[in-house]
Automatic annotation (TrEMBL):
Entry-linked InterPro entries: Kinase-like_dom_sf (IPR011009), Prot_kinase_dom (IPR000719), Ser/Thr-specific_kinases (IPR052239), Ser/Thr_kinase_AS (IPR008271)
Keyword RNA-binding attached: no
UniProt-recorded name of the protein: non-specific serine/threonine protein kinase
Pfam families: Pkinase
Cellular-component GO terms for this entry: cytoplasm
Organism, scientific name: Lithospermum erythrorhizon
Keyword Nucleotide-binding on entry: yes
Membrane-spanning ranges: none
Reaction(s) catalysed (UniProt annotation): L-seryl-[protein] + ATP = O-phospho-L-seryl-[protein] + ADP + H(+); L-threonyl-[protein] + ATP = O-phospho-L-threonyl-[protein] + ADP + H(+)
EC id: 2.7.11.1
Key words, A-Z: ATP-binding, Kinase, Nucleotide-binding, Serine/threonine-protein kinase, Transferase
Amino acid sequence: MGCSISGLNALSDSVNGKGDVWINENRFRVVRELGEGGFAFVFLVKEIISDPSSTALSKKLKHPSFASDDGTYAMKKLLIQTNEQLESVREEIRVSSLFIHPNILPLLDYAIIPVKGSQEQSFKNEAYLLFPVHLDGTLLDNSKSKKAKKEFFSTSDVLQIFRQLCAGLKHMHSFDPPYAHNDVKPGNVLLTQRKDQSPLVILMDLGSARPARRQIRSRAEALQLQEWTSEHCSAPYRAPELWDLPSHADIDERTDIWSLGCTLFAIMYGSSPFEYSREESGGSLQLAIVNAQIKWPAGPNPPYPEALHQFVKWMLQPQAAVRPLIDDIIIHVDKLISKFSEEGAR
């Protein structure tokens, strides 16, 4: 996996609908746009093998299981204006290349190319990142759909979805040094529907992932990290210790555990447990988070077991030092899966 500047004209023209995309030696045709946000665009692409002597991407991958059966992939295009943005993209590529796990979206290939600027265009570089494609959307998409229909995931599906998410996160937290994802939320969790079983769960978007353990020893360091988290960690899922950092603090991977608790709530009810505060007159999202003021909305009938509510509360403890670690979470979710599968069998 690497980067070259071959086929630059085709690479640039493809985004304007004029041609195909070359990522290193492999050629892809843009099928349609899947989404966009900020300076990022995601396209559905299909590999084109016109020369019998060329090697398909599937033959080059270290892990052939990530290859597409029909040659379709997701291509993320990033527009880069500054050196800071370029370094951020390179860091995303580096981090994405670290983790190989069934519940983490793998980076298959990438290219970073220089772009000739114009009066209308200030972009200096463009990056193209290639991933497996999952067309069933994110947990956020599925939750919105269910909410509109007043439907809910079953208790079994809630636990199975959450268990897979924990498995992906454990892989990151078990790295040496441990990495925090820093933006665990429904919009960064892909779901792929499977017949007669719970959906496949894939944790994606490692652009904010960094080594988890940080020592804050000055006001300047605290403000620097606080500013970084305000840009990279979605507010409704951001841990309380990241809102107003003291000048002396030790931050670790339990910031992700808080986000994980919020995401479990969202699997059940469709949103973060603190988003209600945005709709209240005089409400404060930060205060609701810092004080762990959870409001339980109406759920399915019969309601979710109280054990699930207690599970959420266990992860949403304002003091990070008493929050569980990912291994504790997995032990507990496995017990709940066993408990409710046995009850369902009676």
